[in-house]
Amino acid sequence: MKKRITIIKRWLPALIICSVLITSCSQNNVKTDNSLKTYFDAKQVTGTFGLYDNGTGQFIIYNLSRFKDSAYLPASTFKIINSLIGIETGRIVNEKMVIKWDGVVRKFPNGDSATAWNKDLTMEEAFKVSAVPYYQEVARRIGKDTMQHWLDSLKYGNHKIGTKVDMFWLDNSLKITADEEMGLVKRLYFGQLPFQKRSQDIVKKVMLQESNANYKLSYKTGWGFRENGNALGWIVGWIEENQHPYFFVMNVEGDPQAQMTTLRLDILKSILKKQGFFEGKR
Question: Disulfide-capable partner of 91 in 26, 86, 134, 257 (CB 3.0 to 4.6 Å)?
Fold first, then answer.
């Protein structure tokens, strides 16, 4: 435990700096791009988007106030943290660890059967298809006290678990800003979170969604519902071209029936294409 505390203290200044980066440097390194509103309007949603060029330290932000000042439930983007804690504590042995299906047939909010969830899954499979039941079981195995320790250590969002260790990232107890989400994925990419290198490497591996000669695209999605009933979607991650990382966070909000599974990725790819990605020329 002493060694773990030492590691956490070592990275604490970096965590604090990252959390105030947008606010403290907004006049120098942040470009607001309101033209991106077009992509959200086309899907009849509101939201925010941020892109960070690690090489130049420059941000491109749409809807800056929502990006840095408004906190929302992380939904399944919390699977990044749930995975890290699970691996670090041994509750997840590795990405091939299977958790048996409990036999309960689940459906998505739009009524479609969650066929990809209703079976035995490995951690890697559960992460890719964002299987809530798998990660609820992981959270129960981690336990509330250990989970709270890590949320406090990471200064993750508002740190709040509430009463249910297997629901807090979905029931609006836990909330986080887009700015904080970007800080998290940036530190994960560079192995700067207070977890063992192995834990971070496994999570980075399962985040990779697309890879070809031109680019590598890594992300985690999230889909949940705010207290007002609106659907909330996330995509957080990075894109690499010519071995150079760019970090992004997108948060979208719309009607309860909004098709978050498709529209959030459509918006993300449209914006990244406008910024010149996917051709290996960045």
Answer: 86
| Catalytic-labelled residue, pool 24, 26, 35, 76 | 76
Averaged over 30-54, what is the pLDDT?
97
173 is a catalytic site residue: no
**What CATH code is carried by the domain that includes residue 64?**
3.40.710.10
- Predicted pLDDT at 1: 43
- Residue 77 forms part of a structural domain: yes
- Residue 279 in domain: no
**Residue among 183, 132, 134 nearest 156 (CA):** 183
**Structural tokens at position 235:** 């995509």
Residue 166 included in any domain:
yes
Residue 280 lies in a domain: no
At 62, the amino acid letter reads Y
274 pLDDT more than 80: yes
The residues near 174 (Cβ < 8 Å, ≥ 6 apart) are: 73, 74, 78, 151, 156, 157, 158, 159, 160, 161, 162, 168
Whole-angstrom distance between the N-terminal and C-terminal Cα of the chain? 43
The residue range of the domain holding 223 is 2-274
CB atoms within 10 A of CB 75: 24
Q: What is the pTM of this model?
A: 0.90
Question: If phi over 0 gives left and psi between -120 and 50 gives alpha, with beta otherwise, what is residue 111?
Answer: left
Strands (E) across 132-215 are located at 176-177, 208-211
Q: Write down the pLDDT at residue 22.
A: 56
